[in-house]
UniProtKB/TrEMBL annotation, chains A, B:
This is Crp/Fnr family transcriptional regulator. InterPro entries: cNMP-bd_dom, cNMP-bd_dom_sf, Env_Response_Regulators, HTH_CRP, RmlC-like_jellyroll, WH-like_DNA-bd_sf, WH_DNA-bd_sf. Residues 155-229 form the HTH crp-type domain. It comes from the Bacteria. It comes from Sphingomonas rustica. SUPFAM superfamilies: cAMP-binding domain-like, Winged helix' DNA-binding domain.
Length: 263, 263
DNA sequence: CGTCACTTTGAGACGAGTCAATGACCGTGG
DNA sequence: CCACGGTCATTGACTCGTCTCAAAGTGACG
């Protein structure tokens, strides 16, 4: 599944095409992004890419695999507050707030591109459309966080799990690396537990529950969703909050919908 | 409690002084912010300032009172994903993502200043330090959201409540409108429930539990914290994530701590 | 002085956590 | 080639935090 040869420009290309769908860029601006210097880094699952409290000096573009941002309590319990897939620039926010609040950790074997803040700041300064794009990217990240928070507060385990699967699928498809209903998923059940605010044991039972509906097969490091509509209904999934394209969301549909199963 | 006469420049002043503590601004830049046109708006508790799905065209600076950002499910359940106090510019993110994901609602009687996006964009374009300050403000908001998410996922009701009280107190003191252990708090128990992912009934019981410790007196639209250290210990509160000042946080203390009560 | 919003109380139900053990898989080294 | 250790998935029995439903109490305001 993992590419063995990765060109820097190929990875940047994916980022640029994703970003430019919500923040239009001129040829000059795209070229400036493409010319960014970057160093490739590989890491195994559970390796720290950024350690908590660290003073970060480069941002991190995901080429392959999945990463998570962790907030950790001293008793060892932790919460994943964001997940990043190929094409995502995690840590873009560290350009303006370099002190990391939490860890950035690989959830699978990953390939990332590290891009110095200095270079990002340089092109941000030269091209106003690029700062705006970066700023917007951070705001959309926050929008995703809001939805995660609402789900944790107001949905049960099954709906939260279904929602996460729908979101990851949608984001992977948008990034052009998989179909939304059929993708590699290497994170463990413990990772899912940390992302959903559950225990690994309960994640396991929740997955069995979902499998038994027949809507989704998950296991063997893959997810296969056989009935997307049904899964989305359980989750109350409405992709508007991902802001995948430039404000295509009409006022009427910008609401999130509660799961149909809780009538 | 509520001021009857509010000058626009006085409110902007508070915003500028708060922002400039984490994003240093030149005199020119501060002057540009101070010269922003704004219209005063008053609203009663539970009034929508921004409706979900709306296309927002102005941002909103809190002069007095408290506001919340809501994500709502169609079955009526809702989650507060952010709370804003005096000096906060809520909706700054709407400058780059104008379609509102959720509602912005008054949690008490409020006075806000509405500032057109066009004007914010104009000065953001002219002064790079200002875009950076705005971007940073949004990133800090997201940092706060991360901590809320971690708390919802990994702390029990009592610790979550204690944490929220510590956070609001700290932010109010930083904004210069109250002391952190003694402040007006007009939000209802239902609002607290929506913010913490609980039911109003359980919020009530949790407050009784906290009151019985003697560390905090809450009621009558006021909060009085008699033992800050004890409350902070219950919450595992470490204000580093608020990024109140320009990176004063050392790597060693950037971790959040788990509540001492759960040893 | 009644209405309305908010707070408080009680009893019972249920979702999720805890603890503990077993099972499946996989890479590694003897 | 197989025994080993490690990580991850699964299961069972029991506990506990929080929800639900319902009702009553409090206080502000017209």
């Amino acid at each position: 599944m993992q590419r063995l040869t990765v060109s820097t420009s190929e990875a940047l290309d994916r980022f640029i095409s994703r970003v430019s769908r919500r923040s239009p860029l001129s040829d000059d601006e795209a070229a400036a992004l493409l010319a960014l210097p970057a160093t490739i880094q590989r890491a195994r699952g559970n390796a720290d890419i950024v350690s908590p409290g660290e003073l970060v000096e480069q941002s991190c573009l995901v080429v392959d695999g999945m990463l998570g941002r962790f907030v950790q309590m001293v008793d060892g319990r932790r919460q994943i507050t964001a997940m990043y897939v190929a094409g995502d620039m995690c840590d873009l926010h560290s350009v303006v707030v370099p002190r990391a609040d939490g860890a950035l950790q690989a959830l699978s074997n990953v390939v990332v591109l590290r891009i110095p803040h200095d270079d990002l700041r340089r092109i941000a300064k030269r091209y106003p459309a690029i700062v705006e794009a970066f700023w917007r990217d951070c705001v959309v990240d926050a929008s995703i966080q809001s939805v995660w928070m609402a789900n944790m507060g107001r949905l049960d385990a099954k709906a939260r799990m279904a929602h996460l699967l729908c979101e990851i699928g949608t984001r992977l498809e948008h990034a052009g690396v998989a179909k939304r209903d059929r993708f590699a998923f290497e994170a463990t059940q413990s990772h899912l537990a940390d992302a959903l605010g559950l225990t690994p044991v309960h994640v396991n039972r929740t997955l069995q529950d979902l499998r038994s509906t027949g809507f989704v097969a998950i296991g063997n490091r893959r997810v296969e969703i056989s009935d997307w509509a049904a899964l989305a209904a359980i989750a109350g999934f409405d992709p508007a909050y991902l802001h995948l394209d430039q404000d295509t969301v009409s006022a009427a549909t910008a609401w999130r919908h509660a799961p149909a199963s809780r009538a």
